[in-house]
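Issue 218. Parser rejects a valid record. Input:
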Amino acid sequence: MSRAADIKDDRLQVRLDARSKNVLQRAASYRHKTVSQFVLATALAEAEKVIRENEIVTLRGPDWKIFYDALTTPPPPNAALRKAFAKYKKATG
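Output the parser choked on:
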């Protein structure tokens, strides 16, 4: 049985020149896929890469320790932070 999420009823149309279409057809054939399957798989892989690059922060070694320490032992609020919190509390409370 197929789930509702598996139903493919959305469509994406792309206009391209003959050379581009030929390149995609050749590449798809090397992967034993249709052009649609090839384009979708390739576009999704690239989209996931772009999302990871923009939504995930990776830190190594000393940078991770500095970040972790800042989260677990933040400095006490200064005057500017107290003022901003009071302003926020007044606006939302």
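Fixed in the parser; the record now loads. The CA atoms of residues 82 and 88 lie 10 Å apart.
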